[in-house]
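Explain this protein:
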Amino acid sequence: MRKERTWLIVAAAGVALLLTACGPKSRRAEIEQRKAALQQKQDSTLIASQEELAWVDSALEAAKVRFQQVLNELHNGSHSSAELRRLGDELTIARLHRDSLQIRYEVLCGKIQYIHRVQAQRRAGQNDADTVPDTRK
């Protein structure tokens, strides 16, 4: 396994050396290939993030409902101390689950917005190979 990996690294280095030694015209083509690969990666990441966001959104709604059910059960009626402890633990777990899904939801929304912003800049021709888009809005 280690020999195969070493051979693969050597082969990749050789290919990289050949590609860079072919001259300036091939460098331009290589830059264009990298831009195309970046665009393809952004598109696939966007689709995967949107699919994950749909799942997280439905799971978040279910977690909110579960948290509210446990909270209502805790507030309604009188409970023994063991029952109160169980409900308190259940409420804590439901809150943690809800909050973690909420954070995941917000991160995915930010990721999707960032990809949309970069794609819009690329379409507008504002983003050349050496600049990084300003995301501090």
Q: What stands out?
A: The CA atoms of residues 31 and 37 lie 10 Å apart. The radius of gyration is 25 Å. The first helix runs from residue 2 to 20. The mean pLDDT is 83.
